[in-house]
Design a protein that fits this description.
Keywords: Signal. By secondary structure, the protein is an all-beta fold. It has 1 helix and 26 strands. Strands 1, 4, 5, 8, 9 and 18 form a 6-stranded mixed sheet that branches.
């Protein structure tokens, strides 16, 4: 019978044999078909049986203060002698960790093919540090995706992750609970390759701590037609990872070089120039630097926006086509 959680024997062994423990969550993010299900060993004991791709354990207790060996074996393993990868670790008592398995097991069929490896993030969280926020840990686990940025465009928060590369973690983002739109761009931030919704408010995730992983292949055709690239979410409770819904990139997006707002800084009104584009079909949202919406609505017939009521500071003005972001610009209110 399949099991995706630590077997009771390991939990009992851990609790009875060691006074010091650490909290650990394991996430399976290896998109290689040969690793669709793996067995995980702690020292010589089977800890996870048939642990499936894009599945996470809950946070559970493992021995701390002594070296333990975490081993990854094929799903049909018969013992610790079948392990493909062994990582010795010494956990710190009362610390929390997230461990992610990335990489490729097969010798052919994948390009590039970085070997299977375990990425360990200490100082993990099981809940947000502020109950009004959602704390998000970001991990790049897509073997054929380049260094990327993550740019929030729904509320105009801008670049939230800068230049993250394969196997890296971005430390926790402490985000106000809201519904976000995330653009995955190249490292220059100028070319958007994918867009996703992150409906944190709609899902009622106040106070949650989550891990968001880049998973799968940008080019499945070069990777044995494996699972396509996406953003997936692991919760501290474990289980199957949740896919963030993708948003098609709009073919009607403005060329940002043809879009301007003036004056900037502004005191009373902002004028919008969009190079002969009829703005009456679009709406506008203004957000502060914390991502809070301070104004939203239709664009005036004369292509102006009243900002007289705003406090002094820096804001983002975002033009929307329905729910799709067209362009976003920062401005200063004096």
């Amino acid at each position: 019978m399949k099991k995706v959680l630590l077997i009771f024997a390991i939990v009992l062994f851990t609790g009875n044999s060691f006074a010091q423990t650490a909290r650990v969550q394991v996430i399976h993010n290896s998109a290689d078909a040969a690793a669709a299900e793996v067995d995980v060993y702690i020292n010589s004991d089977l800890a996870l049986d048939d642990f499936a791709f894009r599945t996470a354990t809950p946070f559970l207790d493992l021995p701390a203060g002594v070296e333990i060996n975490i081993g990854i074996a094929p799903g049909n393993s018969t013992g610790v002698g079948d392990v493909l990868l062994t990582i010795p670790v010494t956990l710190t008592a009362n610390e929390k960790y997230i461990v992610v398995a990335d990489g490729i097991v097969s010798s052919t069929g994948y390009s590039p093919a970085p070997p299977l490896s375990l990425q360990v993030f200490p100082m993990a969280r099981e809940m947000a540090s502020d109950p009004a926020n959602v704390d998000v840990l970001v991990h790049h686990g897509s073997t054929d995706a380049p260094t990327v940025d993550v740019v929030e465009t729904g509320l105009g928060a801008g670049t939230v992750v800068d230049n993250i590369s394969y196997t890296e973690f971005q430390g926790y983002l402490e985000l106000p609970t809201a519904d976000y739109v995330l653009d995955i761009t190249d490292e220059t931030g100028t070319v958007t390759v994918a867009r996703y919704q992150a409906p944190l408010a709609t899902l009622g995730l106040d106070g949650a701590a989550l891990t968001v992983l880049a998973s799968g292949f940008l080019d499945p055709s070069q990777n044995s037609n494996g699972p396509a690239f996406g953003l997936y979410v692991a919760s501290p409770a474990g289980g199957a990872l949740l896919a963030l819904p993708s948003v098609p990139l709009s073919v009607n997006e403005f060329d940002s070089t043809q879009f301007a707002i003036f004056p900037n800084p502004a005191t009373e009104r902002i004028n919008i120039n969009a190079a002969r584009i009829d703005l009456s079909q679009y709406s506008v949202t203004i957000t502060d630097m914390l991502g809070r919406v301070v104004s939203s609505g239709a664009i005036n017939i004369d292509n102006t926006i009243d900002v007289n009521y705003l406090s002094e500071g820096v804001y983002n003005l975002t033009i929307l086509d329905g729910n799709s972001v067209v362009v976003s610009k920062k401005f200063v209110k004096n």
